[in-house]
Specification:
Layout lengths: L4 E6 L6 E5 L5 E7 L7 E5 L7 E7 L8 E6 L4 E7 L3 H4 L2 E5 L4 E7 L2 H11 L8 H4 L3 E5 L5 E8 L4 E8 L5 H17 L5
Antiparallel strand pairs: 1-2, 1-12, 2-3, 3-4, 4-5, 5-6, 6-7, 7-8, 8-9, 9-10, 10-11, 11-12
Amino acid sequence: MNYPLEIKFKLLALAQQLSITDAGGTLLFYVKQKAFKLREAITVFADREQTNALYQVNAEKILDFSGRYNFADAQGRHLGSVKRQGMRSIWKAHYDVYDGENVVLTIREENAWIKVFDSLLGEVPVVGMFTGYLFHPAYIVTRPGGSAVLRMAKQPAFFEGRFTVEKLGVVGEDEELRALLALVMLILLERSRG
């Protein structure tokens, strides 16, 4: 993939949809989350018309604070999963990415204070509308040994969410796919932060 990648989504859309493009503007993935489902489910497409489904991401349980989301390709083959670390994520977002039963990647928020300030100012009338432009959370994807592979950072935007994903180290194809699917779920789960 041609880095940096750009992820965009509309904040006020009824059914969450986001797109991932590479540095040349080529669409890599188009993601649509099914609306009004008790169990989280998203489909990753190759095109905006949603004719070519590539991957499915489904929650294991209904309304789970420490939910696990399984990745599968279009043929239903299991590719891995991502699990939110519930109590750890209250202060600072923390997700583990699995290839089966083994943790192969970890995603952590760089600065927890951004979450605090965003939450506090988000409650102030009028000022709360601008928190998406003021605060920019960033997330680091690391291997269990601590070596960083990817970094995702929010970019200033008023009526949409915009993130960039930078490559920080050598990453294998399967590892890269799991990381991107996990980052998509992180964005959808943390979307209330704009």
